[in-house]
Amino acid sequence: MERRKVVLVLVIFVVSVLLPASTLGAEETGRNPRKESEGFGSNMMNIAHRGARSIAPENTLIAARKAYDAGADAWEFDVQLTGDDQVVVMHDDTLERTTNVQNLFPDRVSYEVREFTLKEIKRLDAGSWFVEEDPFGEIGKGNVPEAALESYRGERVPTLKEALQLTKDLEWKANIEVKSIEAPAIFVDRYMVIILSRVSELVEELEMERDVLISSFDHMAIRILEEINPELPRAILANEPLADPVGHMKKNGVRTLNLIASALETEKGVSNLESIDKAIPGYRVFVWTINELAEMQRALEVPYITGIMTDYPGRLREAIAGRG
User: Fold this and answer.
1) Helix (H, G, I), strand (E, B) or coil at 293
2) H-run or E-run covering 285
3) Of 9, 34, 105, 173, which residue is 20 to 30 A from 121 by alpha carbon distance?
4) In terms of DSSP H, where are the helices of the chain?
5) DSSP string for 41-103
6) In sequence order, what are the residues at sequence separation of 6 or more whose Cβ sits closer than 8 angstroms to the Cβ of residue 205?
7) Contacts of 146 (CB under 8 A, 6+ apart)
8) Do 256 and 173 contact (CB within 8 A), yes or no?
9) What CATH code would you report for 2-8+36-93+158-323?
10) What are the CA-CA distances from residue 36 to residues 40, 209, 214, 254, 313 (Å)?
């Protein structure tokens, strides 16, 4: 922990030297006062997890379009760096599960995303696996038209810029998760500074600061992002109930918590959310990932939840509509 505090100080120094002053802009008094929930609205948000991944290949542009058509208010997707420091949309740290990388590159020792260039990744088919594996069983149920299945074959891994451009064209929203990686600490620190800087640059280039939320399980990365660009809305991810969610949010300078849905299974988990409501102005709590209708309906009854991430945005749209 102490080593990472030292690294944060070093990163702040490096960023302040290398990045233009216009990208910093932090007030001398500390946290930027801008409400981090701005741009995402105040109503319950329907957030498509990796797009509408129950009926389309996850983290692809076609999954995003399907989610939009299903009535989602935003989509959540994951980003990682390629070997030539480009940002692509990919959940796993390796490419085997959702692409045909082993067929195209049978002799590679590693299939980690960061071992491939963007040009190599753009050769991959990121859609056929979904047709062949039917991961949610929706093809077998007849819920995916044959024409759609054919269109999935050959779908490419999108770059972050392509994902953001589609989001902008649709006048939509995006929750961008910056993935953590397993590597020596010094490599992780360099990796995070590069990817966070790239994300910030692309969001600014497309003037989408009000349309995105940047999240990560690596909470130090979120603090680094504040130094790179304090204007970007940020969130911390938690895969277990937090005993002190307010403390975690304040420590990391965020007003948004992306919380695992199992945290709602205990009375304490729900009451902890009430503490955020009372202590954090403009707070957001998004829970993930809820797919069953009954669980959606229960989550919608928790007043401190402001958004739900789901693989079934059409189902969630109906659940939200049914509340009234």
Assistant:
1) helix
2) strand 284-288
3) 173
4) 2-18, 61-69, 101-104, 118-121, 128-133, 146-152, 160-169, 185-205, 219-228, 245-251, 267-279, 293-300, 313-323
5) -SSPEEEEETTTTTTS-TTSHHHHHHHHHTT-SEEEEEEEE-TTS-EEE-SSSBSTTTS-HHH
6) 161
7) none
8) no
9) 3.20.20.190
10) 9, 10, 10, 7, 24
Length reported for the chain: 324
How far apart CA 249 and CA 242 sit, in angstroms, is 10
Q: What is the pTM of this model?
A: 0.89
CA angle 218, 176, 56 (to 5 degrees): 120
The domain spans of the chain are: 2-8+36-93+158-323
The tokens for 299 are 């989550």
β-strand partners of 213 = 175
Residue where the block lists tokens 């692509």:
88
Q: Which two tokens stand for residue 53?
A: 């991944």
Q: Could you give the angle at the alpha carbon of 213 between the alpha carbons of 209 and 216, nearest 5°?
A: 135
Read off the pLDDT of residues 1-21 as tens digits, 9 standing for 90 and up. 454 544 554 454 444 444 443
243 near 256, Cβ under 8 Å? no
Residues 129, 153: Cα–Cα separation, whole Å: 8
